[in-house]
Amino acid sequence: MLTPQEFVADLFNPALTFLPKALFVALLSSAVCGVIGCYVVLRGMAFIGDAVAHAVFPGLAVAFVVQGNLVLGGAVAGVLTAVAVAVFAQNRRLREDSVIGVFFVAAFALGIVIISRSPGYSGSLQQFLFGSITGIPDEDLIVVGVSTVGLLLVAFLFHKEFVAVTLDRESARALGLPVFALDLALYIMVSIAVVISVQTIGNILVLALLVTPAATARLLTDRLGLMMLLAPLVGGASALIGLYLSWSIDLPTGGTIVLVATGFFLLSWGAAPRHGLLGRLARRRRNPDAVETAPG
Amino acid sequence: MSALTVRGLNVVLGERPVLREVDLTVAAGEFMGLIGPNGAGKTTLLRTVLGLVRPASGTIRVEDEPLGRVRRRVGYVPQRHEFAWDFPINVADAVLSGRVRRVGWLRRPGVADYRAAGAALARVGMTGLADRPVGQLSGGQRQRVLVARALALRPSVLLLDEPFTGLDVPTQELLTDLFTELSRENKAVLMTTHDLTGAMHTCGSLTLVNQTVIATGAPEELRDAELWRRAFGIRRGSPLLAALGVA
């Protein structure tokens, strides 16, 4: 196994230029997924995140077949699916989760059919599904960088509106907020965050970047501002440690990053001050007669 | 001048007529209870007044102006389950969120917003809990946070949907006092409730609804058992009538 010093040396090794690129993309995408993921977790839209993650696949496949830009292709497909879900979910006869179930599997199936038309597809299929740290083109660095800044800016600028809608849709609508447009904006942001993460993490595992760091942060704090700071930190640390481990003991990168993030989640589940197991046990010891119930 | 005027309101949801020719007037300073059986259209009436349901016909005016222009003058306190109590936010910020449209796009709350939210919190007696995460509040405290959020806009009309559901009696009394005081401060307060005897004692006026307005007036004017039987579809000699003192 490599020492951290050797890992740093490899990052600056001119023969291994793909490595710092992979680190750059992994760090930015985990950080941005951490921030956007806070809404995914707080709104209970993990399933939508999963749907969008799968839905970007046909876009990636088309872009691959026509040799176009992967990030752009994936973003277009993800956004189209997000719009389809948002529109079809307006029909109250079907619950939103059914609509999502229909569209995301259809999109994924379409992706598989499209990519199977391309010669030698099995290698690239594996790369899409499980991620890869090699072969990130330079132009993607710019796209990822710009997307990250854009997403964080939008999340910051419309923060109070997103909070109001998440707190209470009915009242938000009564106040005159455009609830549908804000939902759509959030779906689109999730799509873009997913697309820029697919490169390194892979299509199957990208949901973990959206959910795990944000869920970890939620356990650690009752303050949204702090949660939105902790989640990208957890995501970024998972990306860094995960990439280091995967590089030094030759493990698949996406899987390793996700497992590190899961480790953080389990740690905070045990040790979080208020919501964690240890905190609860400590309180019980101090106050053995107290019965813990949710306030009614 | 009446604070809220509804005239000839018809609402159809899907194919089903829910409200027929509803006329309703709430004056400034009036504390009105909106009562009727389940499915009578009470919540639909509130939602229509808020502009959440488009009526088939009829007019809604707030302080003699059409609703579209004066949305901010109508404060809404939804049923408690509408609010995401597991959201990581403290009481002060939850109340401040009521002013999101007033603050405006791309802006941060200013001094006036913090002042209004602080005053609303003080009004419901929750200043001491301003920093508490909303998830740690009791049912009555949660209800007061929702009232404060509505008050943060300094509305002239306050609509409350079933504020007493699931609360114990002392908490109900505390909230009733609060609503009475708010009406004394010249707000028009319109509240749906299932607590009929409570409403008989505390509301200045009552409106009996079952798809349309069956009767409206001060509690002592609603002594005719027949009105109650029509509104609630109950039989002659029902113990409810005795409990209400109209049998």
Topology:
The complex is a heterodimer of chains A (296) and B (247).
Chain A: H1 4-11, H2 18-42, H3 46-65, H4 70-88, H5 96-116, H6 121-130, H7 138-157, H8 159-167, H9 169-175, H10 179-201, H11 206-220, H12 224-248, H13 253-271, H14 277-286
Chain B: E1 2-13, E2 16-27, E3 31-35, H1 42-49, E4 57-62, E5 65-66, E6 74-77, H2 91-96, H3 100-103, H4 111-123, H5 139-151, E7 157-161, H6 169-184, E8 188-192, H7 196-202, E9 205-210, E10 212-217, H8 225-232, H9 239-244
Parallel strand pairs in B: 3-8, 3-9, 6-7, 7-8
Antiparallel strand pairs in B: 1-2, 1-4, 4-5, 9-10
Helix pairs in contact in B: 4-5
Family (chain A): Belongs to the ABC-3 integral membrane protein family.
Protein name (chain A): Manganese/iron transport system permease protein
Subcellular location (chain A): Cell membrane; Membrane
Task: Describe the protein's architecture and organization.
The complex is a heterodimer of chains A (296) and B (247). With 296 residues, chain A is mostly helical. Chain A is 78% helix and 0% strand. The C terminus of chain A is likely disordered. Chain B has a 6-stranded mixed β-sheet with strand order 6-7-8-3-9-10, with helices on both faces. Chain B has a 4-stranded antiparallel β-sheet with strand order 2-1-4-5, with helices on one face. In chain B, β9 and β10 form a beta hairpin. With 247 residues, chain B is an alpha/beta fold. The chains are: A mainly alpha (296), B alpha/beta (247). Chains A and B meet through α8 and α9 of A and α3 and α5 of B. Chain A: It is a multi-pass membrane protein.
